[in-house]
Amino acid sequence: MIKVPAAKIQFLPEDRQWIADRIQEVLASGQLTLGKYGAEFEKEFAGFCGVRHAVAVSSGTSSIEIILRSIGIAGKKVIVPTNTFFATAAAVVHAGGVPVFADMDPESFAVGPETILKALTPGVAGIVVVHIGGIVSARMPEILKLAGEKGLWVVEDAAHAQGSSLDGIQAGAFGVAGSFSFYPTKVMTSGEGGMIVTSDEKLAAEALVYRDQGKKSFYENSHVRLGYNWRMSEPHAIIGLRHLGRINAMIADRQSAAAIYDEGLKGFKNLYPLSVPQGGICNYYKYIAVLRENRNRKELKSLLREKYGVALAGEVYEDPLHKQPVFLEYASGALPVAEDLCARHICLPVFSGMTEDDARLTLAALEETIG
Length: 371
Prior knowledge:
By secondary structure, the protein is an alpha/beta fold. Helices cover 39% and strands 17% of the residues. The protein has a seven-stranded mixed β-sheet, with helices on both faces. It has a three-stranded antiparallel β-sheet with strand order 7-6-13, with no helix packed on it. A three-stranded antiparallel β-sheet has the order 12-14-15, covered by helices on one side.
């Protein structure tokens, strides 16, 4: 029996009632997409991130592809971390670009200035930075400075990072635009959905066109871009709006569990946590811990689940993208740090509503199996 799940979605009874009431309202109105709740969600999320515009879309995957299409990357190269989800690099390909994979900085699991420079070849137009596990790298200012010097744009894949920040700047507000996912496993969810955030007027306007079949406007059947049906429905916006209202409390739950892990892991010889930088606030979408020696993770996860009832979360990521069959044509050699650390880390269970007992049971199980 699973005693501590890898993840859990939390909707309190009052949340469910609030959502149900408003879904009844939109069902009665007949306006099930591009309505008032979508607009309210966009306004509230833009304010939360400290940017001027937000565009609600159907998924985190579509949000990053729309950004890249709006920038105009067709025929250009884009630096992408090799340790990220498939969708980050796939969005580059779908938008007509060519992904150039970069190795990771071991202190943040993100790209660093050095790994960017190694990947910087003629034809590179920009960089996608991914805030892995909800950690905004301490090196973001250096990355932005380097990008400015080289004439590159920076886009943030902030799918993991709702509510994370560095030195008072929210994830999504560092680059020209940020992409968020509201998939059910994320810190906050809309069921399915994503959000584009930016302070660039032109990019925001382009995003609005792309998300609705490339139409010039909602009221004109004139298609000016090769868009798609990337809209967010009103029911999904209602769910997201409610979770956004509770995000600080939900993150506090995760931070409490992380603090117990931080303290407990101090006594471990074979496992250490990935640190949050000074000046950083992490939402703990993932709690990443690194094994000092390689270990069969499938066997470890099976043991923890079957003997202790503890489920580890998915890695970030199990295999780097330059090793994935679908991207082999874009691979250009070994990326040793990612190859090592992708194989040598685990993600401890963490979720909103997690109790102290859950965290301590997890630590006890890890102490007996890893120590």
